[in-house]
């Protein structure tokens, strides 16, 4: 990882990035395999200390694989100047002298910002710390380390070993996407994990459920993607679902009011994203080719995702609240495993799959890790292959083979994992039967 951090131009080092992160991912897979049989005695302090060192390698490097952070700083700088970031698109604004450099670096300046209100508050905080890329990345890395701590606390609450936190804390994906590129997604997942932890620890009380709802509102208004996990959290709220919904509505309202009435303009940007954006979406490109219609393909994938959410949550809802005899699996663990399954379905059906979108899945790996999830968190980085011709020639040219590999790699890994797991169970039963026969 240090070699990548020292790279003068990371966009030209994509083959090295893919290879080095593959080795790191193989280490995580081995850690999971070995840890399930002989638990590691790694302390929370060690886990977070190593996570910090990994992130420090990239903190002071420029954001090379994505330019989203310049929009973050532009929005945050405008808030500090008293300008609503939803009032107008950057292209329609003559920037002040101190923001001219940022203005020139913004992608898609013709659109009003697509980032929700909670994200805007984070951008303003980062801008207040100095308004530099490094300052904002340092702020987001601090939140990411807090997320690592929250994961450890939740693992302990769910009766799972704390060493599993390394599946996120030492994962190359958050290191590259948060410390390297400064993406805000980790902050949203920190609020999601906080909401889940509040429901597990204090969900039976009115205050705990309401605070969990407010935290989830924050998560969804940092990045909208966690909304797909809302039905699962609603199940976890159990008898305090009205209080959870109350906290959710109050939190969303409190975060949104400062940006009204211009906040309504985000709908135009979100609509353009939903209708037109596409990247590395194998299911989408396949359906579009089969139907000849991008719109029909998008609607079909939305239907598939909604069906997956309904199927997964209904299965959890029907499960008993107490562990089955001989099984340590509680309803709380079933819910977070459902979140993992829903996130996997979301990533495999979305028409646009940027590498940092998989941070949602990486956050849930400590609770429901399997071959498919670990492989997908690495495979999304194959899409950075597009950066090579874009940097050299200015041409954004996707590879159909890469798009297919990003989809098929986790699907294949998951299928092989099920086959091998089934064989082990059959062999174990056969061994027991042989022993009883003797």
UniProtKB/TrEMBL annotation:
Annotated transmembrane regions: 12-33, 39-61, 138-158, 178-199, 211-236, 242-260, 295-314, 357-381, 401-420
Pfam family, one: MptA_B_family
Statement: the UniProt record of this protein carries the keyword Magnesium: no
UniProt entry keywords in alphabetical sequence: Membrane, Transmembrane, Transmembrane helix
Record-given protein name: DUF2029 domain-containing protein
Species for this entry: Geomonas anaerohicana
